[in-house]
Amino acid sequence: MLEILQRVEAWAGGPRAALSWYRAYPIPALGNRTAESLVKTGGASAVRDYLDHVALGGYA
Hints:
Elements: H1 2-12, H2 15-24, H3 35-40, H4 44-55
Helix pairs in contact: 1-2
């Protein structure tokens, strides 16, 4: 969880915004599930892969 929050903090606009994204933003590429939901069910690697994809210029 902390790794993911740290990775999105800069583009989310700070720690609070990153936490809000983590908890509430549905990620279309991951079945419209939130990062929090995915991490809680063992899908942290899918979130990390998604963030790597976006960081390399891929579409969200």
